[in-house]
Amino acid sequence: MSQTSWDRSDDAEQQEATVVPPMPALLRGHRRVLMMLLVATAFAHAACAVGAGLLVGVLLGDVGQPAREVLADLGVLALTVAGLGVTRYIERVVAERLGQDYVQQLRRGLVSHAMTSAKAPSLGITIARSTNDLASVRNWVSLGIAPLVALGPLVIGSVAALATLGWQLAAVVAVPLLVLAIVLGVISGPAFERARDLRRRRGSLAARVADTVTAAPGIAAAGGVERELRALDTSSSRVVDAAVRRAGTAGLLRAAALVAPVAGSAGAATLGAFGIVPAASVAVALTIVGIIAGPVGDAGRIVEYRQNHKAARRIIAPLLAERVEARSEPLFDPGVSRGGRIVVRGLSVDGHEMPGLLAEPGDRILFRGAAPQHAREVFTTLAVPGREGFASVCVDGKDLAHTGPKNRRRRVGYAPVGARIERGTIARAVRYRRPDLSEADGSAALAAVGLAERVARLDEGERTSLRRGGEPLTRQEVARLWVARATIGEPALLLLEHIDDDLGPAGREMLRRVLADYPGVVVMASDRPEELLDEWQEWAVPTAEPTRDAESAPGTKPAPVAAIS
After folding, report:
1. Measuring CA to CA, how many Å separate 218 from each of 124, 222, 228, 233?
2. What sign for the dihedral angle of Cα 432, 436, 442, 444?
3. Per the domain annotation, does 503 fall within a domain?
4. Contact at 8 Å (CB) between 338 and 396?
5. H or E element, residue 262
6. Which of 20, 125, 246, 410 has the most Cβ atoms closer than 10 angstroms to its Cβ?
7. Is the Cβ–Cβ distance between 360 and 149 less than 8 Å?
8. What is the CATH classification number for the domain harbouring 463?
9. What b/e sequence results for 309-326 when a residue is b if at least 16 CB atoms lie within 10 Å of its CB, and e otherwise?
10. How far is it, in rounded angstroms, from Cα 506 to Cα 510?
11. Which of 273, 298, 321 finishes a domain?
12. In sequence order, which residues have a C-beta less than 8 Å from that of residue 456 and are 6 or more positions away?
C-alpha cells in the first residue's frame, strides 16, 4: 500500500471520529467504592500535609520548653509524616486497581469488536488499540484522575492553612498556582492535537508492520525487502517527528508545573526577608509548599495524560458504542425450518440480493460468486447472521440471528480456507464448537479426518499445544482439523468455504468420504466440486455468469428458492 493510501485512511479515520460517543461509565460496580476510597484518601493526605506544616511551626515555638513537650509535639509530627506516606501508598495502589479494572473492560470490548465486527480492523490496528490507546486510558485513570482528586483538597487545605498565618503567605503561594492553571489551560489544546497526531501515525505504522510481516514470504521472493524497509523508515520517521513535537508540549506542561511551587517558596522567603511575616511562619510555609510541590509538579503530567486520553477516546469510544442494527423480528416464522431444513432470506452480496434458499437434509449446495470476496461475505454472514445486513438464516427451527451462540454452534459448522487456529491444545481445538462433547468424541472426529495417527505421534498427543495459528501441524493438517471441528456433532448446516484448497489431493479424497454420508445440509464454495461431490445444486450471485465448468458438471441444477413469505 502506498504512503498516500495510508494518509488517506488516516484522514478518513479522523472524519469518522468527529462525533465521539461517550466512553463506558468509569464509576460502575465496585469501581464506585474504589473512587470513594480515593476521595477519602485525598482528604486524609491533605489533612496530614497541613498538620505536618503547622506542627513545624509548633516545634519552632517549643524552643526553651521542657523536653517532654518537645518530644510529644515531635511524636505527633512523626505520625503526620507517616500518614503522608501511608495515604500516598494507598492512593497509588487504589488508583492502579481502578485504572486496570477499567482498561480490562475496554480491552474486552475492543477484542470482541475485532472478532465480531463485519468490518474488523487490521491486526496492526487492533494491537495498537489494545496497547497504545488503552495505555493512554489507563494513564489518565490511574495517574491522572487519582492525583487530580488528591490535588484539590491538598491545595485548598494548604492555602487555607497559610491564610491563618498571614494572607500574604496565602497570596504568594496561591498566585503562582493560579497562573499555572491558566498556562496549563492554554497549552492543553496543542497538547491534544499533537497527541492525536502521534496516535494516528503510530496506528499507521503498526498496521504497516503487521501487513509487511504477514506478507514477508512474498516480499522476499520478489526481492522487495529493501523497498519495504524504506517505506517502513518513512512511516517510522513520521512517528519520530510526531513524538518529538508532542514531547515539546509535554516539556512545557511539566516545566510550568515545576516552576509554580518554586515561585511560591521564593515568595514566602521574600516575605520573611522583608520582615512582613515571622520566620516561624515562613518555615511553616516552606514546609507546606515542599509537601505540595510534588503533587503540583504532577499537574503538567496530568494534563498530558488527559490529552492523550482524549485522543485515544476518539477511536475507542465509537468502536465500543458500535451496535449492529438488527431485525426486531425474523423475516418469517423460523418454525418452517424444523426437521433440519435450512431457510435463507434477505441475504445481499455486494449490493445484489441473493435468491432465497430452501434446503432439505442431505442437500449439497454449491455457492458461486462473481468475485473472490463474495464467498467470504456470504459464508461469514451464514456462520454469524445478524452481524451485517438483515439476512435471516433459519436452521432446524431457529433463527440464528435471534438465538445465542450455544444454539448456533450446535446447528452450524464452519471451515474456512486459510484460517488459523486459536491458542490451545488439539483436544480443545477439535471440540471448540462443542465443548459439551467428550474427549472420545473429539478423538473420533480426528480419526474421521485422518489425523488420529499424526496426532498420536506428537509428544503430548491431543494435549499438544497449538501456537502461531496451528504449529506444529502443517497447513493441510490444520485444514483437516478445521473439517473435524466443523463436522463434530453433525450440525444441521455445514459451511465449507474453499477449505479444499488447503487440503491437498489426499485431503480432498478424505472430505469426499466425509460428505458422502453427511446427513445435514452442506453449503460449499469450491473451484473443484466434482472432486468432492457427485451432484449438487447451485446457489449463485445474480450478477455471476454461469461458468463453463458449472454448465457441464454432471448433476448440476439450480438451488431451490425459498418461497416463504
Report:
1. 19, 6, 12, 20
2. negative
3. yes
4. yes
5. helix 225-273
6. 246
7. no
8. 3.40.50.300
9. bbbbbbbbbbbbeeeeee
10. 6
11. 321
12. none
- What's the whole-model pTM score? 0.62
| Whether residues 362 and 298 fall in one domain | no
* CA gap 111, 123 in Å, rounded: 11
Amino acid identity, position 247: A
Same domain, 280 and 410: no
Contacts of 112 (CB under 8 A, 6+ apart): none
Residue 3 lies in a domain: no
Amino acid, res. 459: D
Torsion sign (Cα): 527, 533, 538, 541: negative
Q: CA torsion 470→472→473→478, rounded to 10°?
A: 0
Q: What is the pLDDT of residues 115-142, one digit of tens each?
A: 666 555 555 455 555 567 788 888 888 8
The number of residues making up the chain comes to 565
Residue span of the structural domain in which 526 resides: 334-558
Q: Which of 55, 50, 298 is nearest to 157 (CA)?
A: 50
401 lies in the same domain as 504 = yes
Query: Cis before residue 472, ω within 30 degrees of 0?
Result: yes
Among 282, 297, 321, identify where a domain stops. Answer: 321
Give the span between the Cα atoms of 517 and 523, in whole angstroms. Answer: 15
Question: Which residues on adjacent β-strands are paired with residue 523?
Answer: 365, 495
Within a domain: 351:
yes
pLDDT at 401 exceeding the cut of 90 = no
Domains identified in the chain, total number: 2
CB atoms within 10 A of CB 148: 18
Backbone angles phi, psi at 380, to 5 degrees: -70, -35
